[in-house]
Amino acid sequence: xxxxxxxxxxxxxxxxxLPPALRPPLLSSKLSTSFPPFLSCPPKRxxxxxxxxxRGPMVVADDGMYGRKQVVSLTPQLYHYVLSNVREPQIxxxxxxETSTMHGSQMQVSPDQAxxxxxxVQIMGAKKCxxxxxxxxxxxLAVALALPDxxxxxxxxxxxxxxxxxxxxxxxxxxSHKVDVRxxxxxxxxxxxxxxGETNSYDFAFVDADKRMYNEYFELLFQLVRTGGLIIxxxxxxxxxxxxxGVNDPKTVSLRNFNRKILEDKxxxxxxxxxxxxxxxxxxxxxxxxxxxxxx
Length: 296
Ligand SMILES: C[S@@+](CC[C@H](N)C(=O)[O-])C[C@H]1O[C@@H](n2cnc3c(N)ncnc32)[C@H](O)[C@@H]1O
Fold this sequence. Notes:
By secondary structure, this protein is α/β, with parallel strands linked by helices.
């Protein structure tokens, strides 16, 4: 049964509810001039959409089954606060700033996403990782920094020009010995890893490439990741389009079908996390179709 959700404005502006010592700079009157230390210039996309009313809405489940649970909905102001609470390594900040002037800069994962990826690598004690879709290397550098010195990240990317930026930053960060760059179509690289006998050996995979290929990437990575390993799929909320039945372009349909498929997939446990554009964390719990295994 589908829950019904409504949106309500918070009764009191957040800035009023927080004691002064806990108020982040952005919640002061300098709304448009104060930025987290790692943002050297105003985040343009955020500023363009800053609301005049600084109260944030809450999404409320008005279905009795969810007990009128209130879930915070990120406003530009609140997201700015999230960013101001990210510990972003200097080298990642430099890469983000350099990339911000490049075509496609909106594609890189956000600092809060990268921090979560790095933490998952550390929690897993991961030694072997794969990333599909490198661009200029922001998320892959976050993963490589989190790996031990003996760790290895296979970095799959088809665009040689953005790979040059990524490789320069791997060098600068002192992690290039951990990164095995594969300049090719990702499906070819993943198939070659399978053919070379690397199935069931990877601890962690992150997918952030062609959205129409998500199912193919997932099935190949499922073979490569060990039982207990993670496959993390980015953009699963696709700017909200997956939840809009009126949007049926090929990428949206592919992501919607993929989300539906993994919900039913008893080989994995899953958690869809609304960070960035949505990431689903999939944990491999069985090698083959496991009838009767509980799905979390
Ligand atoms: C969203 S960007 C990745 C952003 C990256 N995760 C970051 O944080 O900077 C997607 C990348 O996937 C690459 N890509 C798309 N299709 C691909 C394919 N079939 N094989 C390899 N790379 C592909 C694109 O060239 C692009 O650089």
